[in-house]
Amino acid sequence: MTNFRDGFVEVNGVKLYYRVAGEGAPAKLICLHGGPGGSCDYLSPLLQLSERVGVEVLLYDQFGCGRSSDPPSDSCYTVEYGVEEVEGVRRALYGDEKVFLLGHSYGGLLAIAYALKYQWNLRGLIVSSGLSSVPLTVKEMRRLISEMPEQTRRVIEKYEVTGEFTHPEYLRAVDEFYSKHLLRLPEMPPDVAKTMEYLQKRRVYSIMNGPNEFTITGTIRDWDQTSRLGEIKVPTLITVGKYDEVTPTVAEVIHRGIPNSTLKVFENSSHMAMWEETEKYLTTIIDFITHVD
């Protein structure tokens, strides 16, 4: 296990929990977890980057997530608030220094939103199983559901009509989807399980996302910045799993939209390539960071 230091930093009146490894390295990498509403625990493999390339790795729990405190009001549960939080973290910990920014899943969406406003503060952008359009992502997830066994599809459709999103039969069907498209491992790693536990305990996921990954009814449901991707000029790496719930089609849209970006598909992964193909994933990140001027 990679050694790290943890602590809290206050940003916009919110106490944010963070972990940092490789302190003092010349390059800085801020990592944004998914959910929205997860925690930084499941991104723990990224801390290994600090031992293999000259980079300081920072993970943190976003507002209302994990060990961090809640934002001042419910009106803060927005992407825009999250962007200002990312900028606040960068300023508080790194001052005027440019950083690499990696966002996974919803964190990839947040990283894109940050780049659209603050790209001059970035050395490079990494969008890992991320998205530029929630409606497109939901459409793609619905396509994945349509390809599942008929019985599973019927169960999902049945309980979505009645709104019984916590019915045991429905949850079993959702788990079947997750086992194919969220994490294709026989057992859930403890750090991933910890994130899932926080996601269920805190309010962010239900407010911003909804009852599950493919039923997005929260504040991000209409978010779509695809038309603005061409504004992003910093070096950009996009990664995705072949079986990802945020599908390769979504990644291709981002790749086509951001000039001179690079796309990497992990052939044996779904949504968590940092666990499913750890070595290939970390090597891909290292190659990107070391080749940015």
How are the secondary structure elements laid out?
Layout: E1 5-11, E2 14-21, E3 27-32, H1 49-52, E4 55-60, H2 79-94, E5 99-104, H3 106-118, E6 122-128, H4 134-146, H5 150-162, H6 168-181, H7 190-201, H8 204-209, E7 236-241, H9 248-257, E8 262-266, H10 273-276, H11 278-290
Parallel strand pairs: 3-4, 3-5, 5-6, 6-7, 7-8
Antiparallel strand pairs: 1-2, 2-4
Helix pairs in contact: 2-3, 5-6
Could you explain how this protein is built, in words?
With 293 residues, the chain is α/β, with parallel strands linked by helices. Strands 1-2-4-3-5-6-7-8 form an eight-stranded mixed beta sheet, sandwiched between helices. Helix 2 (79-94) packs across helix 3. It has helices spanning 49-52, 79-94, 106-118, 134-146, 150-162, 168-181, 190-201, 204-209, 248-257, 273-276, 278-290, and strands at residues 5-11, 14-21, 27-32, 55-60, 99-104, 122-128, 236-241, 262-266. It has one domain (5-290): Rossmann fold. The chain contains eleven helices and eight strands. Helix 1 (49-52) links the parallel strand 3 and strand 4 (55-60).
